[in-house]
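Researcher: I've been going back and forth with a colleague about how Probable 6-phosphogluconolactonase might be arranged in three dimensions. Neither of us has a model we trust, so I'd like an independent prediction. The organism is Heracleum sosnowskyi, in case that matters for your notes. Sequence below.
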Amino acid sequence: MAFSGAVKEGRELRIYEDLDDLRIDLADYVADLSEAAVKERGTFSIALSGGSLIGLMGELCRPPHIETIDWPLWHVFWADERVVPKNHPDSNYKLAKDHLLPKVLVLPSQMHSINDSLSAKEAAEEYEFLIRQLVKTRLVAVSETSDCPKFDLIVLGMGSDGHVASLFPNHSVVDDTEDWVTYITDSPKPPPERITFTMPVINAAANIAVVAIGSSKAEAVHLAIDDVGRECPSLPAKMVKPTSGKLTWFLDKFAASKLDSCANKSE
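Model: Here is an independent structure prediction for Probable 6-phosphogluconolactonase. You can compare it with whatever you and your colleague have in mind.
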């Protein structure tokens, strides 16, 4: 059962008593956006993070979505990636390829991964160049309010520290407004070398989903969503504010347990 909080300034909260309900609703959400994008533009651009998020999206690989989604029209990107070989257990590409994408008909040429033979800096630069070329050909839309790419959907997990993609609290790349893709070599979580979308690119998306489950995320969810003033101005999850798109939070009851009471009521 889902409890929807208030839709405010392009943000919606969806809170679930049961994790299976979250999985089903997340799959329906992605499928609906895919259908709308394909009808409008003939393609669907989606950027993923890794971790437990991929497992939560597994419902897409079951009926009816496995049969009804226009998989060959998908272009898949990674909102962040660990700079490790593609067969490494830490690779977000490997995680998605092993557990989500092999079950569907996304063409290998449309799974846009980083060049893992390069340094983090070089990989970020090359990935940004790739995205710029796809924006030029309109396989990825362009934002109406900036020169940033406008992905149809970016799906993010959130860490217990409030990080999204590989944008960590108090790290200098959080404030990068010049690049589309940047890199870090000192990640507070291993492995240390990563590439990541910058916050302007995340916020330029037509739709952003942030998924958080478990009580370990409850404090960060509270700080990111509730009006807590200036307590956490640099918390990356709090900085996710679409410029003209829509943000949807998918939370289980444990991650939502510290939200203000009004956020836990259905309307």
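Researcher: What would you highlight for our discussion?
Model: I'd start with this: The mean pLDDT is 91. After that, consider the following. The two ends are 13 Å apart (CA to CA).
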